[in-house]
Design a protein that fits this description.
disordered C terminus; three-stranded antiparallel sheet; about 1450 residues; mainly alpha; 9 strands; disordered N terminus
Length: about 1450
């Protein structure tokens, strides 16, 4: 007692007493709860600002530790010891709660020993609850002590669970409420999740929750972990991921374990965006360690990966970089999951890109308040982030390994290489994207030229663009995977289709352009790719040569491997196949031109790594002309590049026509790179050119250029038109033309017939150089062609021109070569502005072209000139065949291209000048006195030859037909060559490749052609239709040229580039809709009124065929614009349809206007469809009976003749609109929406889908009420099936899940259901029965039994599917009605038996039937004396009676 009395003194006195006590006195203090008083007093002292409170607590805990660590002497003191421990624990937790305990190691160890003594005490249930609640209060007030608090909470809760008795509710102890131990456990975990967690304490808290949490609480725990990690400054991500995985596996959430880790990492990535670079790098390293740990964990937990794969497929959420890395790592760790993961990623890419395509193409989807589904840009960014993280992680790992080696550490795979594990699978995935892209050459050309994974790109093109970007980024980021990537490229160049190989060629070209030094480090792989040169397709092989050519300028061994004595191109020159030799010729020409062109460009190649210097030997030789450069084959003996080039050309001149044609096309590029080669080229070309000239008779030996073989095949031995073009280009380089010089017509009449450009420069000299000799030869040939006629070459109107006969094919081929030569001469005459000669040549050209085109399908003629007998089946000898139009086919000779399929020999510059002449009124400007003066008698002077020629329909037809053939012929070639040219890199390299491939620069035609089209259309509208067929066809040909030109642009940027220099219309100005559009869209929009003016003028003039072509052009150009600008263009078509002045009776024009109105209606598409549907009903009539509208605003120029075509257009457009709704409903039903606000987003999208379906149901209800037959009837049946299936899907989506309370559907859903019941379904029922009746009637009338059976099966299947779709929707609607309490079927049509019905019209009345039977019996009883006519009448009556009796039977309706 004296000891207790001394505790009433000051705290300093108590401290002295506690320090002097022995063990026995301490036990006495424990028994008498002295320690409790001490703790309370210490807490009071602390709160009262005592100075030595920490010392008091330390002394008390030290003394208490000495007592509790000793064994208890007897059982009598156990109760007092337990009570004392309870007091000690509670007071210790209180101290931690108020942060009285220090943070040093000694203080924490003392407290830990005291707390651990609870395990040795026999506390009551109330005592355990007090300990748990005190620990929870401690965690809430002092998060830093969470680990210590949980260390005492766990054993206390375990003791309660072991006892299993009900306990008093901790929050309602005064009321005496009790609860089960399990419920209290749930409450404890819930309170722990509500406490604040520090980042350093999260692993410890998770470790404690692993023992005390329940299965249903795992999602809440994972969410709490994510929130705590986001708020924390730094976390130990690998340990947290390990604890999360262990927690989910142990509690039965194995399928969601990996997804929980992915969500955690994604949340940390989002929060790290605002942090410093060092913090982001640290997080990246932790993510890499987590991936590395999961990579080793997954092989032993395959079911874990499979469960997560099922969840990922069903979730359909956007993929993050960590998720992609984990998936790709799984594909490497588990071989059986490799293909499923690859397939899922491809589906994910296709889905995301398709989602973007839908959102950008549809104006309705683009204006939705929320965008469903993952975005393609986010997926692309995730893939690229995965690559960059792998690169940065690898860099940090290499730095760590170097530091470890410096300290003597061992080597091996570091813990931070998790991101790098995804590098190889990423490359394999990108390769799979390119392999399955299946893009056309034109699409790939757009992808390479544009570079952006564009908003207007088709989904499969965007996937190929993504694959190319991923491969290039992988090569740039990870040096360790470069060899693997090049091996993948090498393996995809052989044994695949050209469309598959060319994307890999493009990747190889991009890598060489940007990283030549890095590519050269793997020269052995490049040589291995070149070894397979002979097995590549021609375009692929040429693309590889062009892509690797920059490396040949840098390294001697690469050049030798390509063009050396045993190089791949040298071997290909001696190949048996013409295609291989053609590639070799073009490849060698390209390399030689680039070798010569580097004389002015320097010695290095510039890439992203800087300027890469060439080998000294190559660098020295590249600064010399060809006569001083060593041979590319590196042969000895002083052979120069000039000798090698001449030998190569001589050999090529002896080979097939395609090879010579490629050689002729490359001569101009060689001379442009090294003009000193002109004399050598002329010496080579002059004797070869002379082989096809003859001094007497026709100037050209057409029989030597094209002949008929023994098997009847027409072959070309010499492309004389290409040779003549090459010679003219060489002469132009030898003596440059003065572009501003014009020869007057009067001067040419005086006897001088040779134009100044080709007049020999030294006619008086006795010795002439090769250039002068060739000039003279060309001048003589030109003059002789001017004086010639088609009959001089054995070609006349009476010849056999039929392409099916051998002689007709030969004439077609020879005429094509002759026309090419005439066009070369025409171009020279146009440059000299000689109108009289041009008139003669155009007449020659027009006559020959007309004969060939008109006679190509005429009856073949015999040798004597008479036509073959009609009974003769074969028009050519057995075994012979007409030559196809493709050049360069395998065989002994090249096959000819006929007149209507040939490309003009005119250059783009010449066509531009001719087009400008049409617009400006002549090739040269007329003097004022000729334009305004008068003749000697006061009459107006006649226009000059230039003006007459420029206004001649023959000239217009020639120029327009030439432009149209050039645009049509260069489209496939340009697409193929653009892919090859795209690998050339810099613009000069691309120009060389384009010149060698003879791809015309058709973009230069844009401005002159558009001006000429406007002029011709205006002239035709002003003059009306003339008597000449040629003049009447000019507007149609002009608009076809315009359509082909603009379609060549293909993209918004491409079309804008064509229209940029076209003058803007006066009324065209910036509109509100075009303010936010791109610069390219604004360029197109400002030139749109020009097209509108031409369309209005054509409709006013009644030129329907021309208007049809122009509407297709406007629809194409308008489709490239953003949806905000569509409505203005759609209004043009609507105004034209509603204009009372214009009467569009041509089906094509009507279809074009309606199609343009519907496809560009934008957000008003439902109103536009309803407008057209009402017009159809007014034109075709209604199948429902009753009056039909006849107002002009409903007809829209739709007549009974054009109704079927307009119905097809309407239903095709409706199918597109239904696909958009179908995609949105799929987003709703497949779980694309997740996260915060998903319910509100889902409700908004569901409302939009219901409103859209309501509008479409109204349109379909109006369309199905029209009297449709044939194809439109089948089309609308398919649309109805799709519509009712969509109604079923959205109805099922509106139903609540099982065991969930059903809420009433939205107002939009109810309005949609009512609209379908009232506007669509009744008309559909009538349509089904009406279609069945028409089907029966058609079957009775059809003459062909097989056709009847096929049509019956087809229509019967569609009607059956339609009935099934209606019934399935109504069944689900009835179920929803029962569960929600609303009568959704109140407006539905009454139940109808769809199996059969009685056709009342066909059932006769009973009295009428009896009377008819009596009449028939009387006629049957008449005597045999009646004549034959009466017997015939009797049989007819009996037949009619039998038919009417059958009409009373039940008729099957479906």
């Amino acid at each position: 007692m004296p000891l207790l009395e001394r505790f009433d003194d000051a705290p300093e006195t108590r401290l002295q007493v506690l320090r002097k006590n022995d063990r026995h006195e301490l036990r006495t203090l424990l028994g008498q709860k002295v320690l409790s008083a001490t703790h309370h007093d210490v807490l009071g002292t602390q709160q009262a600002a005592g100075t030595n409170s920490q010392a008091h607590v330390d002394a008390a805990f030290s003394a208490f530790r000495q007592a509790v660590l000793e064994e208890i002497p007897d059982a009598q003191q156990a109760s007092s010891v337990a009570n004392a421990l309870l007091v000690a624990v509670l007071q210790n937790l209180a101290c931690m709660k108020h942060q009285i305990l220090g943070t040093g190691t000694e203080e924490l160890s003392i407290g830990q020993q005291i707390l651990g003594a609870v395990d040795r005490a026999d506390l009551s249930g109330t005592g355990h609850v007090q300990v748990i609640e005190a620990a929870l209060h401690c965690m809430k007030s002092n998060p830093a002590a969470s680990a210590l608090a949980l260390s005492v909470l766990k054993p206390a809760l375990a003791s309660l669970l072991q006892a299993g008795t009900a306990i008093q509710h901790p929050d309602e102890m005064e009321d005496g409420a009790t609860m089960s131990v399990g419920a209290y456990q749930t409450l404890v975990v819930h309170k722990i999740c509500r406490c604040p967690w520090l980042g350093c304490q999260i692993p410890s808290v998770l470790a404690a929750l692993l023992d005390i949490s329940l299965s249903e609480q795992v999602p809440n725990i994972v969410k709490k972990v994510t929130d705590a990690c986001v708020k924390a400054e730094a976390v130990d991500l690998p340990k947290i991921a390990e604890h999360i995985l262990e927690l989910c596996i142990s509690k039965g959430h194995k399928a969601s374990a990996l997804q929980a880790i992915v969500d955690l990492v994604d949340a940390l990535d989002a929060a790290a965006a605002a942090k410093s670079r060092e913090e982001r790098l640290q997080l990246n390293q932790q993510q890499s360690e987590s991936l590395q740990w999961l990579r080793h964990k997954l092989p032993t937990n395959a079911d874990l990966a499979q469960g997560w794969m099922k969840q990922v497929k069903g979730r359909q959420s956007s993929a993050s970089a960590f998720m992609l890395a984990l998936l790709l790592g799984m594909s490497e760790a588990l071989s059986r999951l490799h293909q499923p993961i690859t397939d899922h990623l491809q589906v994910l890419v296709a889905g995301t890109i398709q989602a973007d395509h839908h959102m950008q193409r549809s104006a309705w989807l683009g204006k939705l308040p929320t965008a469903p589904g993952p975005q393609g840009a986010a997926l692309q960014q995730a893939l690229l982030t995965c690559i960059t993280n792998a690169a940065s992680s690898g860099h940090m790992t290499r730095q760590g390994n170097e530091a470890g080696q410096g300290h003597g550490a061992g080597q091996g795979q570091g813990p931070g290489q998790g991101w790098q594990l995804a590098s190889r699978p990423v490359i394999a995935f990108a390769v799979a994207l390119l392999e399955k892209g299946n893009v056309r050459l034109a699409e790939l050309a757009d992808a390479l030229s544009d570079g952006e994974a564009g908003a207007v790109a088709a989904p499969h093109v965007a996937a190929v663009q993504l694959g190319i970007k991923v491969l290039v980024a992988s090569f740039e980021a990870d040096a360790s995977m470069r060899a693997t990537l090049l091996r993948e490229l090498q393996g995809r160049l052989v044994g695949v289709k050209e469309e598959v190989a060319l994307p890999f060629v493009a990747v190889l070209g991009l890598l060489v352009q940007r990283h030549p030094r890095a590519v050269l480090e793997h020269a052995n792989l490049l040589k291995a790719a070149l070894d397979r040169f002979a097995f590549m397709t021609p375009t692929t092989a040429l693309g590889v040569i062009i892509a690797l050519q920059p490396l040949a300028l840098l390294k001697k061994h690469i050049q030798a491997y390509m063009v050396g004595p045993s190089g791949v191109l040298r071997k290909a020159l001696f190949s048996r196949g013409v295609a291989s030799r053609l590639v070799a010729v073009r490849g060698l020409l390209y390399i030689i031109v680039q070798q010569l062109r580097t004389m002015d460009d320097g010695d290095g190649v510039e890439g992203d790594e800087g300027v890469l210097e060439a080998d000294p030997e190559l660098s020295l030789s590249q600064s010399l002309p060809a006569s001083q450069q060593p041979s590319l084959s590196a042969g000895a003996g002083g052979v120069t590049l000039l000798h090698e080039l001449m030998g190569f050309m001589r050999r090529s001149l002896t080979q097939q026509a395609p090879i010579r044609e490629a050689l002729y096309q490359g001569v101009h590029a060689i001379l442009g790179a090294d003009p000193s080669l002109q004399d050598s080229m002329l010496e080579l070309l002059l004797p070869h050119f002379a082989l096809f000239l003859q001094p007497h008779g026709p100037p050209l030996k057409l029989d030597a250029c094209a002949s008929l073989q023994d098997n009847g095949t027409v072959t070309v031995h010499e492309p004389i038109d290409v040779l003549l073009t090459c010679i003219r280009q060489v002469l132009l380089l030898a003596q440059p033309r003065n572009k501003h010089m014009t020869d007057s017509i009067d001067g040419m009449v005086g006897g001088e017939t040779t134009p100044s450009i080709l007049r020999p420069a030294a006619e008086a000299s006795q010795e002439r150089n090769p250039s002068q000799v060739l000039q003279g030869t060309f001048s003589q040939l030109k003059q002789r062609l001017l004086d010639s006629k088609p009959e001089d070459f054995g070609l006349s109107k009476d010849c056999d021109w039929n392409v099916a006969s051998p002689q007709g094919g030969l004439h077609q081929g020879q005429a094509g070569l002759l026309l090419g030569c005439l066009e070369v001469v025409i171009e020279d005459v146009v440059d000299d502005a000689t109108g009289q000669q041009l008139t003669s040549l155009l007449a020659f050209h027009d006559s020959l072209t007309t004969w060939a085109l008109e006679g190509r399908h005429a009856k073949p003629k015999k040798i004597d000139g008479s036509t073959q007998a009609p009974s003769q089946k074969r028009s050519r000898p057995p075994g012979c065949k007409a030559a196809p139009a493709t050049a360069g086919a395998s065989g002994p000779h090249a096959q000819t291209a006929y007149v209507d399929r040939r490309s003009p020999a005119l250059s783009v510059g010449c066509l531009c000048r001719l087009l400008n002449a049409i617009t400006d009124g002549g090739l040269v400007a007329e003097p004022d006195n000729q334009m305004q003066g008068a003749g000697p008698c006061g009459t107006a002077s006649e226009p000059s030859l230039h003006v007459q020629l420029a206004s001649s329909p023959m000239t217009h037809s020639f120029v327009l037909q030439s432009c149209l053939r050039m645009l049509h012929r260069c489209q496939p070639a340009a697409a193929q060559h653009a892919v090859v040219i795209g690998t050339a890199g810099e613009n000069p390299n691309r120009a060389v490749a384009q010149e060698l491939l003879a791809t015309p620069d058709w973009g230069l035609l844009a401005v002159p052609l558009i001006r000429a089209v406007q002029s011709i259309v205006q002239l035709s509208v002003m003059k009306g239709r003339g008597k000449g067929k040629q003049a009447d066809k000019l507007p149609l040909i002009a608009l076809q040229c315009l359509d082909a030109l603009l379609r060549h642009g293909r993209t918004c940027e491409g079309v804008a580039e064509l229209l940029r220099e076209v003058p803007v219309a006066a009324e065209a100005g910036p509109s509100e809709a075009s303010i936010g559009a791109s610069e390219a869209a604004q360029v197109i929009w400002q030139r749109g009124p020009l097209l509108h003016q031409m369309l209005h003028a054509l409709l006013q003039a009644g030129r329907a065929r021309e208007a049809e072509v122009l509407t297709q052009t406007i629809a194409f150009v308008g489709g490239l614009l953003p949806p905000a600008l569509h409505e203005g263009i759609s209004q043009w078509a609507l105004d034209a349809c509603e204009d009372p002045v214009t009467q569009v009776t041509h089906p094509g024009a009507s279809k074009g206007l309606i199609s343009m109105h519907l496809s560009l209606a934008g957000c008003e598409d439902i109103a536009a469809c309803m407008r057209v549907s009402k017009a159809l009903e007014g034109a075709l009539g209604s199948s429902m009976g009753g009056p039909t509208p006849k107002t002009q605003e409903h007809h829209l120029q739709v007549t009974s003749k054009t109704g079927s075509a307009v119905a097809t257009i309407l239903f095709t457009h409706m199918e597109t609109l239904l696909h958009d709704v179908e995609w949105l409903v799929a987003c709703l039903t497949k779980g694309f929406l997740s996260g915060d606000g998903a319910e509100a987003q889902r409700a908004s999208l569901e409302t939009s889908a219901c409103q859209r379906l309501k509008g479409l149901a109204g349109v379909l209800g109006s369309g199905v009420a029209c009297s449709l037959k044939g194809s439109p009837c089948d089309h609308i049946a398919r649309l109805l099936v799709t519509t009712y299936r969509l109604l079923k899907a959205i109805t099922i989506h509106s139903k609540a899940p099982q065991k969930a309370q059903q809420v009433p559907p939205s107002a939009a859903f109810q309005d949609m259901v009512n609209a379908v019941h009232q506007q669509l379904t009744p008309n559909v029922y009538h349509f089904i029965f009406d279609a069945s009746s028409v089907e029966d009637a058609d079957q009775n009338r059809a003459p062909n039994a097989e056709q009847k059976v096929r049509r019956a099966k087809k229509e019967g299947k569609q009607m059956g599917l339609l009935v099934k779709a209606i019934e399935e929707w109504e069944i689900n609607l009835i179920k929803l009605t029962r569960s929600c309490g609303l009568n959704l079927m109140r407006h539905a049509k009454k139940s109808t038996n769809r199996d059969f019905r009685i056709n009342i019209v066909e059932v006769p009345d009973a009295d009428d039937q009896a009377q008819e039977d009596e009449e028939a019996e009387e006629q049957a009883n008449q005597g045999s004396d009646e004549d034959t006519q009466e017997n015939g009448d009797e049989e007819q009556v009996q037949t009619e009676t039998t038919k009417r009796r059958k009409g009373a039977d039940l008729q099957v309706a479906s």
